[in-house]
Each structure stands twice: as structure tokens, then as C-alpha cells.
Amino acid sequence: MENTLIQWNCRGLKANYNEILMLLSSVSPSVLCLQETLLKTSDSISLKQYCLYNYISTNVEKASGGASVVVNSKLPQSKIDLKTPLQAVAVRITLHKAITICSVYLPPNSNIDQVQLDDLIKQLPEPFIILGDLNGHSPLWGCAHLNNRGKLIEQCIGKHDLCLLNDKSFTYLHPATGHYSSLDLSICSPTLFLDYEFKVHDDLCGSDHFPTFLTSVTPVTSGQIPRWKFSKANWEKFNA
Predict the structure, then answer these.
(1) Please, what is the average pLDDT of the chain?
(2) How many C-alpha atoms does 159 have within 13 Å on its Cβ side?
(3) Would you list the domain boundaries of the chain?
(4) Contacts within 8 Å (CB) and 24+ apart, 60-67
(5) What tens digit of pLDDT does each residue of 171-189 get?
(6) Considering only CA atoms, which of 36, 51, 33 is closest in space to residue 185?
(7) Domain 4-223's class?
(8) How far apart are CA 43 and CA 185, in angstroms?
(9) Mean pLDDT, to the nearest integer, of 140-164?
(10) pTM, 2 dp
(11) What number of other Cβ atoms are within 10 A of residue 110's Cβ?
(12) Can you give the pLDDT at residue 229?
């Protein structure tokens, strides 16, 4: 298991289930954060050796939006109960240290205000990493222009003294125009800024968003208790 975090707008967890299995198999990440999972409460989804935490839209007529956090089952973990109108789910996980991972999807046409973002951040135990498709445009993370959502996110990052891990690489390919932009963000507490390296995958994997990778420079802490075979010890050599 690698101390790697993956973020991806998969445009349907069921539609790209096999692609998700391939990502988990090839990378063996500690955590996978998904957006636009398009799940309904009646859906039964499982991933071998991983625990799945979901935010599911309450629109029962048609599956829409959604966010998930997929965590390796070997890691100590506990879900954070969020009280927010935003599409977000958060889990406290022990990696090289205890970290809160929050997966967020902000639809492009939804009305998001500063109070909602502030309230979400206040509910996340530090240190934390927010991974998600926030649909905000800003040159700060590689977009050609700045829109109102981008201004809102910039203000939130500055207000809470957060750090942006993106390196301005493109994360989204518009299927109609072929235009590239950066909509998927990795935002973290300052104490985590030097712990991870950001990279964008070179394959869309069936979506119009590229998966992004945060690879830790510190190995993950094993949650297993070490055991020793005392019967095979060379006690004479030990005593000498």
C-alpha cells in the first residue's frame, strides 16, 4: 500500500467501476476521492479491501452529483459527520500522521457562498486535505481566466491560511470544444504542504477529468501490531 491519495471526477461510479478497480490495483492508494459518483441510496457498491464512504444526492428521480471517499481497509479510520448543504464527505485517517480527507463536489450551476465554505472548513479536524471538483476558474491553479467561483475559492484559501498543492497542470478536457482547464483542486493545511507531491494522470480513464495523484514523501504508518517469532531467536548469540 502506497501513501498516495487519488482524486477523480469519475462521472459515474458504476459507469467507470472497472476503471476504478484498475486504479486501485495499479496504484494501491491509501485513499481515493471521487466526485460525480451519480449514486442513488438504493445502489449497493463495494470495493474489495477498501471501505466506501458516500455523499448521495437526495434527488430520488435521477442520480446526480455525489462524492465518495474510498479508504484502504487496513488503515485506522472514522467518518466525520458533516452538517453542510454542500456535497461533501470526510474521513479521519491515520497515514504517516492522522489526517482528515474531505471529498467535495461543487456543481457548476449551484449557488455556493462564503459562509458555506467557511462552515465546512471549521468542521474538518486539522490537519486536513480537501480534494475535489470545485468548478472554479483561476489563473492561480492554471485556468485562463478568473470567474466568481474562482474568486470565492481564492478568498477561502487566503482567509483560512490554506495551501494549494496544484502545480497548474490541466485536469479537465471539455468534450465538445477540446479546451483544457483546471477544475480539480487539492487544498491542504499548511502543515501538510511539504508532505505531498502533486501529479496529474495522463489518462482520462473514461471521464472528462484526469485523475490527480498526491504522493507522500513519508511512508504510510502500518496499523498492524508487529509480531516476533521468539522460538527462532538465537538466544546464545543475543546473550553474548
Answers:
(1) 92
(2) 13
(3) 4-223
(4) 63/38, 63/39, 64/38, 65/35, 65/36, 65/37, 65/38, 65/105, 65/107, 66/13, 66/35, 66/36, 66/37, 66/38, 66/39, 66/105, 67/33, 67/34, 67/35, 67/37, 67/103, 67/104, 67/105, 67/132
(5) 999 999 999 999 999 999 9
(6) 33
(7) alpha beta
(8) 28
(9) 96
(10) 0.88
(11) 13
(12) 81
Cell of 189: 493545511
Residue with cell 470544444: 177
Q: Which amino acid is at 27?
A: V
Integer Cα distance of 193 and 139 in angstroms: 20
